[in-house]
């Protein structure tokens, strides 16, 4: 059932059943959940599959692929896995995605640590937390100003130094659009003006859900393509200013022609 809007009684029942089902089938009690976007593939896994296991000594649950709004899933469905993670006892959510670079300093292949986001569907009322608040998960109006854990970002930056990755690890603001088309040039310019460093069609809804239920969030975005619409108009502006001045001067210089014309008529 595809609907945009809040969770129904049935969805809440789904949460409980799914959690029970998962807990009964694995001895793992993961504290970390990883949503693998297009940038991170678990080999041999069909789309939107979950798996839990031990990675580097830590019990983790992974989700291969995710639900996107543009696929027709409801907002509730998109954030459903996050609620499940919470009920499973997860404390930290790691989200990854592939996005288009808007920041002029970025290069294709850069890894952007997400420091903040802009929720474009949210501006249009398409927000997974709209509707009656599910108190099991969190408060009615959650704070979103510190959605991406500062500590985890600091740790990631330290690690990028240790690994000698600093020339391609960046930090930036991720913007979610609903898709499914890539952005027009005018939209790209708009997003750049709004302070977005990259744009994609996911992640933000999951993060809003995660923040609502008190998960610590860390986000990584792989820059897959670059929008090369330059915002640097300074040279052109200068040229145009000269041209404008020239036009004005010429107009004034020739204005007698107009007067003469009027006089003639
Ligand atoms: O964000 P993930 O899931 O990585 O997917 C990204 O890749 C798709 C576009 O190629 C869009 O869905 C975009 O959001
Ligand atoms: O350029 C993009 N725009 C939106 N979504 C994307 N996902 C990967 N790249 C992009």
Which class of secondary structure composition applies to the elements? alpha/beta
Main β sheet profile: 5 strands, mixed, barrel
- DSSP, total strands: 8
Poorly predicted runs of 5 or more residues: 1-5
Which small compounds were modeled alongside the protein? 1-O-phosphono-alpha-D-ribofuranose, hypoxanthine
Helix content: 25-40%
Task: Give the N-terminus to C-terminus distance in angstroms.
Answer: 74 Å
Shape: elongated
Radius of gyration: 25 Å
Describe the structure.
- One of its GO terms (cellular component) is cytoplasm.
- InterPro entries: Nucleoside_phosphorylase_d (IPR000845), Nucleoside_phosphorylase_sf (IPR035994), Purine_phosphorylase (IPR011268).
- One of its GO terms (molecular function) is purine-nucleoside phosphorylase activity.
- Belongs to the PNP/MTAP phosphorylase family.
- This protein is an alpha/beta fold and 265 residues long.
- It has 2 domains: 9-232, Nucleoside phosphorylase domain (Rossmann fold, 3-Layer(aba) Sandwich), CATH 3.40.50.1580; 234-265.
- The protein is built from 7 helices and 8 strands.
- The protein has a 5-stranded mixed β-barrel.
- Helix 1 (9-25) packs across helix 2 (75-88) and helix 2 (75-88) packs across helix 6.
- The longest helix has 31 residues, at 234-264.
- The chain is elongated and about 95 Å long.
- The structure holds 1-O-phosphono-alpha-D-ribofuranose and hypoxanthine.
- The site of 1-O-phosphono-alpha-D-ribofuranose (R1P) has 11 residues, from strand 4.
